[in-house]
Amino acid sequence: PAHAPLELEHFLPYRLSILSNTVSQGIAAEYEERFQLSMTEWRVMTILARFPEVSAREVVERTAMDKVAVSRAVSRLVDAGRVDRGTHDGDKRRSVLKLSEAGWAIHDEVAPLARAHERELLAKLSAEEREHLDRILDKLLAI
Description:
This protein has 143 residues and is mostly helical. It contains six helices and two strands, in the order ααααββαα.
């Protein structure tokens, strides 16, 4: 045949994308409804919770998300009072971000829900399968 379409059901990038979307959307519906918080905004907040006082560029690097999407999410979070924007050691050329008290309040409600969702998902795997999955993901992410 002249065409050789990808068999998406066996194509790893497609399968990983579907898995990621399915897993992420499971918890996203709840925090979107409760807090009017997008998936990108939540991911930015989780990075700021784990790595306080980083730049938007560092958020992009740590998440591999689109720079424009992160920039828009950061703007919405700052406007909503969920993230504070400051300067790095007084250097006005470099802004840093951190969760505000309001941002921490939302984080502290959503994070346990996300952890519970993860536990529920991983419960489908044996302990050995979870260990294998962790090692495989570490290898693939080291690319």
